[in-house]
């Protein structure tokens, strides 16, 4: 059964969703990846990183067996199915880290806007690896009735901040202030942003995205990122 809050508001919060072992594994893996050079993670797949200020450590689950087991396992599979109402495939995954004292904000956008062509909505499962506050760059969400507003809004590329912007209104959004181990799941059609990190510590998060079917370019048939089955 699909989560009612997810359908009505475009997101759902799962408190204490991660076990202590899962949280520790994610934190440790993220820290290992942070030892690598600060270029944008993902071997050129993304252009939205800003060095130490905003790092995307992407598509590395195959290098870490524990991470791969987790991202394809029952904890996230249950959340993804609860939001999408069906069996799911891993579409994308990445760590997102905002550097201490200079972590860059991220503009309002729908994740679907970054795909580049029409596709069925998917779910983003955002995991707090640190206690997340407005001071260290929490996520903000504008609630969205997914049945009433199912589409992708117009987005504009911002050269100065290296990102898409899909909302120029006055709504500040709801801040997702939460402790480490919390999961916030939101639709790829839900507008969200994140603030800057002004604290003395990095703000770490892990994102896994799941789709009901494979996402392919409608013209070429080329697979976008992954389409790996998740544990039932």
What does this structure look like?
The strands form 3 sheets. Strands 1, 2, 3, 5, 10, 12 and 13 form a 7-stranded antiparallel sheet that branches. The protein has a 4-stranded antiparallel sheet with strand order 4-11-6-9, with no helix packed on it. It has one domain (4-214): q2cbj1_9rhob like domain (Jelly Rolls, Sandwich), CATH 2.60.120.620. Helices cover 17% and strands 25% of the residues. A hairpin with a 4-residue loop joins strand 7 and strand 8 (163-165). The two termini are 14 Å apart. It has 232 residues and is α+β, with helices and mostly antiparallel strands. The longest helix has 15 residues, at 20-34. The relative contact order is 0.26. It has 4 helices and 13 strands.
Task: Write a compact overview of the structure shown.
By secondary structure, the chain is an alpha+beta fold. Helix content is 17%, strand content 25%. The chain has four helices and 13 strands.
Question: Which overall shape is indicated by the principal axes computed on the Cα atoms?
Answer: globular
Give the N-to-C terminal Cα separation.
14 Å
Question: Number of DSSP helices?
Answer: 4
The CATH class, by name, is: Mainly Beta
Average residue pLDDT = 93
- Secondary-structure element series: HEHEHHEEEEEEEEEEE
């Amino acid at each position: 059964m699909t989560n009612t809050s997810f359908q009505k508001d475009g997101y759902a919060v799962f408190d204490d969703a991660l076990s202590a072992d899962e949280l520790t594994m994610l934190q440790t893996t993220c820290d290992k990846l942070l030892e690598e050079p600060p270029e944008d993670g993902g071997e050129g797949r993304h252009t939205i990183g800003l060095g130490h200020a905003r790092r995307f450590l992407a598509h590395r689950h195959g290098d870490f067996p524990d991470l791969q087991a987790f991202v394809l396992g029952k904890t996230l599979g249950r959340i993804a199915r609860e939001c999408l109402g069906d069996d799911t495939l891993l579409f994308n995954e990445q760590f997102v880290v905002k550097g201490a004292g200079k972590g860059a904000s991220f503009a309002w956008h729908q994740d679907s806007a970054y795909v580049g062509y029409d596709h069925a909505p998917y779910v983003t499962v955002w995991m707090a690896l640190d206690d997340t506050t407005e001071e260290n760059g929490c996520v903000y969400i504008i609630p969205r009735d997914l049945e009433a507003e199912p589409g992708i809004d117009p987005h504009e590329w911002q050269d100065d901040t290296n990102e898409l912007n899909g909302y120029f209104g006055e709504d500040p959004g709801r801040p997702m202030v939460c402790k480490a181990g919390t999961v916030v799941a939101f639709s790829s059609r839900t507008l969200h942003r994140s603030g800057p990190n002004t604290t003395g510590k990095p703000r770490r998060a892990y994102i896994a995205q799941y789709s009901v079917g494979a996402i392919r370019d409608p013209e070429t048939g080329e697979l976008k990122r992954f389409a790996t089955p998740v544990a039932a």
